[in-house]
Specification:
Blueprint lengths: L1 H39 L7 E6 L3 E21 L5 E6 L6 E2 L4 E5 L2 H36 L5 H34 L1 E3 L4 E3 L9 E2 L8 E16 H11 L5 H4 L4 E4 L10 E5 L9 E9 L10 E17 L4 E3 L2 E7 L5 E8 L7 E6 L6 E3 L13 E3 L1 H12 L2 H5 L1
Parallel strand pairs: 1-19
Antiparallel strand pairs: 1-18, 2-9, 2-13, 3-5, 3-8, 4-7, 5-6, 7-9, 9-12, 10-13, 11-12, 13-17, 14-15, 15-16, 15-18, 16-17
Amino acid sequence: RSVSRGLGDVYKRQLMMNSFRKFLLASMCLVFFACNGKQQTGTGMLPDYAVVEVQPDSVVLSSSYPATIRGRQDVEIRPNVSGFITKLSVDEGAVVRKGQTLFIIDPVQYEEAVNVARAAVNVAESAVATAQLTVDNKRELAKKNIISNYDLQMAENTLASQQATLAQARAQLVNAEKNLSYTQVTSPSDGVVGTIPFRVGALVSPSMTTPLTTVSDISEMYVYFSMTEKQLLDLIRQDGSSNGILEKMPMVGLALADGSLYPERGKIETISGVIDQSTGAVSVRAAFKNPQHLLRSGGTGSIKIPSVLPSAIIIPQKATYEMQDKKFVYVVQADSKVKNTEIQVFNLDDGKNYIVTSGLNPGDRLVVEGVGTLREGMQIHPISPEQAAAKLKAMTQPAGEKGE
């Protein structure tokens, strides 16, 4: 009985040792597979972020200034004679040529004035002819000593008086004819007719303050804008002197009221030599060709003056975030950890990109998407923007299309 009990104890101990060995082996297998799985998926555990390497590039900046548009020549049309308008020969907005009739003022009284003046000239010419005959006759009689020199001198004085009367009558005729011609109000230049406040039947006169209309020569347009004293000084410093600034100024663009860019380029022609004390600005004029008559006098727009930065770092605005009115980006370090970096940007903002003036160096790797989910020191898996776009497309693609 004692032998049987000893054999049973040995058997139990063997069973316990076998169970312990199986448990230990299973535990080691679990640890091995877990470690092996971590090694295989270690890079996959890091989040993917689109990263670009910044490099300097030449960029053209554009400064914008509000502007008003005027025709090269805006002529106010005013009457030279008084009378009622009997005919409008053009309408508002019509394109007219130099010498084309715009208005007709009632000519009846001026035609009569011409007839009276012409009759007076005829009378004066007859009087001169009569006086001339008298003088010729007196001269013959004076040669024969039939009359005295006094009589001859009186006849010559009468002739001179009649000649003066004739000259006066002719001048009055010319004036009457001029007044008659003024009843047809013509355009002094090629252009476009503006507003016409007076219509048929309106009484007009040279003393009226409101013009009949305005004819604008719009073959070439003048665009006026203002520049601050500081901006003018910056331009002068860039070009070296104030004398050559106009020759060195670049061709400028014009943004129209609807936001579109005018196809023709303009040239800055004049810069006012006096700074307005009330505004601290100088007036500048640029000239634009207007072959299609797209620009009209009185319009508005914005002058675009380009300037070139030869070496600038441009980054998308979505790669930045703000904190206490400062701008920051995340720069990827060599160990794939991100570091928040403050940057300074150029004051021009196109709504899409920033031009970095300090804070970044060529070759820096910059996170350009998802910066709101990052934090200082976070380790990421950098990928290119193309890879990020492909990954997003694959995630959003319908299941049926993925199978295909």
